[in-house]
Write a structure and sequence with these properties.
The chain has 73 residues and is mostly helical. Helix content is 47%, strand content 0%. The longest helix has 19 residues. The relative contact order is 0.21. It binds zinc ion. The site of zinc ion has 7 residues, from helix 1 and helix 2.
């Protein structure tokens, strides 16, 4: 059994915020958690936290699901 290597690098992600949050992948608990955190951050009008969640979420999407948000670079 092999252990996955953690890269822990977000250097390839843009620093500016995207307007729309990613879409959660059905059945993925992590995606649901990110979606909930993003909802709470927006409700609190906490823009910097919302950006943080989106960056982490996009990293999760790229690493775990091999996808990214469509139409946003
Ligand atoms: Zn996920």
């Amino acid at each position: 059994m092999r252990t996955a290597v953690e890269h822990g690098s977000y250097d390839d992600l843009p620093e500016f915020p995207v307007l729309r949050p990613p879409r959660p992948v059905p059945g993925c608990g992590d995606c649901e958690r990110y979606a909930r955190q993003h909802e709470v951050a927006e409700r609190d009008r906490d823009a910097s936290r919302a950006v943080d969640v989106r960056v982490l979420w996009r990293g999760h999407l790229a690493r775990t699901h091999g996808t990214d948000i469509e139409g946003v670079r």
